[in-house]
Amino acid sequence: MPQCEMCGKERPSLKTVKVEGAELELCDDCAEFGTEVRTESSSSSASTKYSTSSSSSTSSGSSGGTASSSGGSNRRRRDMFDDMDEIAADYDDRIREAREGRGQSQEELASSLNEKASLIRKLERGDILPPDSVRKKLEQKLGISLVEGSDDDEEEWSGGSSTTTTLGDVVKRKD
Fold it and tell me: Among 31, 55, 159, 173, which is most exposed with the fewest C-beta within 10 angstroms?
């Protein structure tokens, strides 16, 4: 008998439910913590659909055909993480070097930011990530950037530079 992946109870049937981005096999009691996932059996669409009040009202045959034709784009759905800044991997070193470059102690920097010195110590050790409010204060006060440059990532993956060597430039065909 299958077990619920959340509470561990053994149940004869489980539902596939998406809870905070993870698809779990849950019992009826735990299914209320997420959104039930149902897979379509039609061969035209092998993707999963989430049952909500708006999608259940469009489950008729004629609107199902339009939904599968409009869902044919390969665009990824945007989520809340797309708009978030990514903290640099060496944020702790950046904070420490900037503070030491200004000749300040951790206590002096903390008081100028109206924060606790223990927070600055934890940040410089890399124990915690800076909250957005503290990150903005540090960037403004120390004149540094603690986020990864998104422009660099886009240029790295663009592949549009003319100086790139490809396999066709190196290989010689035997004819």
Answer: 173
How many independent structural domains does the chain possess? 2
Q: What are phi and psi of 36, to 5 degrees?
A: -70, 135
Asked, for residue 163, whether it belongs to a domain, the answer is: no
Cβ atoms 146, 88 nearer than 8 A: yes
Residue pair 9/27 in contact (Cβ under 8 Å)? The answer is yes
Distance, in Å, from the CA atom of 67 to the CA atom of 81, rounded to the nearest integer, reads 26
Q: Each residue of 25-84: pLDDT tens digit? A: 889 889 888 888 876 544 444 444 444 443 344 444 444 444 444 444 556 666 666 666
* Percent helix, strand and coil across the chain, each to the nearest 5: 40, 15, 45
The whole-angstrom distance between residue 16's C-alpha and the CA centroid of its chain comes to 22
Q: What is the pTM of this model?
A: 0.42
With respect to residue 14, please indicate whether it lies within any of the assigned structural domains.
Answer: yes
142 class by beta-carbon count within 10 Å (0-12 exposed, 13-18 middle, 19+ buried) = buried
CATH number at residue 123: 1.10.260.40
